[in-house]
Design a protein that fits this description.
The structure holds 2 protein chains of 2 kinds.
Chain A: E1 4-13, E2 16-26, E3 31-35, H1 42-49, E4 57-62, E5 65-66, H2 72-78, E6 80-83, H3 95-99, E7 106-109, E8 112-115, H4 117-131, H5 147-160, E9 165-169, H6 177-192, E10 196-200, H7 204-210, E11 213-218, E12 221-227, H8 233-241, H9 243-248
Parallel strand pairs in A: 3-10, 3-11, 6-9, 9-10
Antiparallel strand pairs in A: 1-2, 1-4, 4-5, 7-8, 11-12
Chain B: H1 8-18, H2 25-41, H3 48-73, H4 81-98, H5 103-126, H6 132-151, E1 156-157, H7 161-168, H8 176-194, H9 196-206, H10 208-213, H11 218-244, E2 246-247, H12 255-265, H13 277-296, H14 301-322
Antiparallel strand pairs in B: 1-2
Helix pairs in contact in B: 2-13, 3-8, 3-9, 3-11, 3-12, 3-13, 4-5, 4-6, 4-11, 5-6, 5-11, 7-11, 8-9, 9-11, 12-13, 12-14, 13-14
The chains are: A alpha/beta, B mainly alpha.
């Protein structure tokens, strides 16, 4: 049984069929790339997995349990974390608050649950140090950090709560070359620890260097789902843009 | 929003003076300058009785402004607080005076009327997906209209002495509304700054999509936030009615202006994300001192309206300049 199984997942927005019956699965400890042109439905599909959208039809099973209809908080609780392309950070709050966003630590004072900012800061510090991220202080306002540092905060948040699956939406799009290597190493580390990864990326070199399988999405449908070693850059590009176009090149 | 490069120096300078919170240093300076100016121009200003007077007149719109702080922190707005105040006061007066119910039913009626109206706001904003500005502008008319219909447009006199005490009592010389304001502020401060509810309210104002993606139940939160604003409007309505010993359908006219101004003056970000109850208290005091000062200087009340409106515009303008300090978006 796979860790994540999608069966015939469909989603429409008004007249637009964003997902037209998507079926694929992800094994524990493996990295699956999800590639496709802009508007192919990648982000919609991921937001359907994380509970931001609810599918119109189809099944999504995670660790053997259906997660359709659960809200984003419950799905995070189940062990799926996502690093959003826009990072989904509260930029007027400090780094520690962002790492614990939605899962704030509390302590009971006279029966009232108050946020334990001290505990959150010390745990956030430990997490940031473990990732080797260069963030001056976890008490710093997140909006004042550089793009790469903000990325680190989003990554730290995704990894703090022992996820079983981490979805990354274009995690390298805004990064410098050295930082990209860092993210790719991170994906390898996660795999080695048995954590599954779904990587959405336009950079096929990244995809080929870390992913075990490559799923190509076009117009809301899976049109290719191959092991990385059994496909090629050209074949993937051909699938992304449509085979007919590729043959002319 | 403006997004000029961050000047880390100015940010840390601010953080040092405000303890990293959202209390705006400028608002304390404004309050101090205002007080000094008033003390110089009027000998009556610094008397104990006048200071208690200021606190007393601040208490009603101060309670409204505390609710407004939660709403604006979440990037919303509540224009209906003045009307909810009037409706609550009328309901409380009718229950006790017309229906002869006990005093505590009157208090519960006030609070329930406010909370229920606020909850309707919240449901229309979330389930109806109507912008808060429109919903609460509509409710400004509807709640005021219901207050007028219920009361036939006339004041309802004769509240039970227990309720009147809430408005006119002075244990140890301190007016009860002032005590109620301070207790409300204390609880609200803990709620906004130190609980998940308060932090989530601010995160919704900061980045609603992020809040939702991270598991914050945004719709439920918004209903609760507008219900809280309604509940506090009900409390303000209770204090108002108790003070004048009647349910007054025209009470609290244009109080939304005062409450919003006090909130913004206190450093709560007009576009959401950061709010401070302590700041709002300072903002409300600025409004109270301003009104009191204009009264002492015998400025005609018409000019007070002009002053309050001008202060609101000025405060937002200063905020715009300040926010060039900027957040990367």
């Amino acid at each position: 049984m796979s860790l994540l199984e999608l069966k015939d997942v469909r989603k429409t927005f008004g007249a637009i069929e964003a997902l037209r019956g998507v079926t694929f699965s992800v094994e524990a400890g493996s990295a699956v790339a999800l590639v496709g042109d802009n508007g192919a439905g990648k982000s919609t599909l991921m937001k359907t997995i994380t509970g931001v959208y609810r599918p119109d039809r189809g099944d999504i099973h995670f660790a053997g349990v259906s997660i359709v209809g659960k809200d984003p908080g419950e799905i995070r609780q189940a062990g799926i974390e996502m690093i959003y392309q826009d990072l989904a950070l509260a930029r007027m709050r400090d780094v520690a608050s962002n790492i614990f966003l939605g899962r704030e630590l509390t302590r009971s004072v006279l029966g009232v649950r108050l946020i334990d900012a001290k505990q959150m800061r010390s745990q956030a510090e430990a997490m940031v140090a473990r990732l080797g991220a260069r963030i001056p202080s976890v008490a710093q306002m997140t909006g004042q950090l550089s793009g790469g540092q903000q990325q680190s905060v989003a990554i730290a948040r995704a990894l703090t709560f022992n996820p079983k699956l981490v979805i990354m939406d274009e995690p390298t799009a805004a990064l410098a070359v050295r930082e990209i290597e860092h993210v790719l190493d991170l994906i390898r580390t996660l795999k080695a620890r048995g954590i599954a990864v779904i990587l959405i990326s336009h950079r096929l070199t990244d995809v080929f260097s870390v992913c075990d399988r490559i799923v190509v999405l076009r117009q809301g449908e899976v049109i290719a789902d191959d092991a990385t070693r059994e496909t090629s850059m050209n074949a993937v590009v051909a699938h992304i843009v449509g085979a007919a176009d590729a043959q002319r090149q | 929003m403006t997004s000029a490069p961050t000047t880390a120096a100015s940010a840390s300078w601010r953080a040092r003076f405000t303890g990293g919170g959202a209390v705006r240093l400028e608002s304390l300076v404004v309050l101090a300058v205002l007080c000094v100016a008033m003390a110089i121009s009027s000998s009556a200003f610094l008397s104990v009785s006048n200071i208690l007077n200021i606190l007393l007149s601040t208490s009603v719109f101060g309670v409204l402004a505390i609710g407004m702080t939660f709403v604006i922190s979440s990037a919303g707005i509540d224009l209906s607080v003045g009307s909810m105040l009037a409706l609550s006061g009328v309901v409380g007066a009718m229950l006790t005076s017309d229906l002869d119910l006990p005093w505590w039913m009157g208090i519960l009626g006030c609070l329930a009327a406010g909370a229920a109206t606020g909850a309707v706001n919240g449901f229309l904003i979330t389930k109806g997906a109507i912008p808060p500005f429109i919903v609460t502008l509509g409710m400004l008319g509807v709640a005021r209209g219901i207050a007028l219909v219920l009361s036939n447009g006339v004041s309802i006199y004769g509240l039970p002495p227990e309720i009147v005490w809430l408005g006119q009592g002075r244990p140890f010389g301190v007016p009860v509304p002032v005590i109620v304001l301070l207790l409300t502020a204390l609880v609200a401060h803990l709620l906004l700054a130190h609980t998940r509810f308060g932090v989530h309210a601010q995160v919704i104002g900061d980045n609603e999509g992020a809040a939702r993606a991270m598991g914050v139940r945004v719709e439920r939160m918004k209903v609760l936030i507008y219900t809280l604003s309604g509940l506090l409007s009900g409390l303000a309505g209770l204090l108002f009615a108790a003070r004048i010993n009647s349910g007054e359908p025209t009470a609290g006219l244009s109080y939304e202006l005062t409450a919003i101004t006090a909130t913004i003056l206190g450093g709560t970000n007009l576009f959401g994300g950061r709010g401070s109850v302590v700041g709002t208290l300072i903002g409300a005091l600025i409004m109270g001192v301003l009104q009191n000062g204009l009264n002492l200087l015998a400025v005609r009340p018409f000019y007070q309206q002009i002053a309050i409106g001008a202060v609101l515009i000025l405060a937002v303008w200063l905020d715009r300049i300040n926010s060039r300090e900027g957040w990367r978006r």
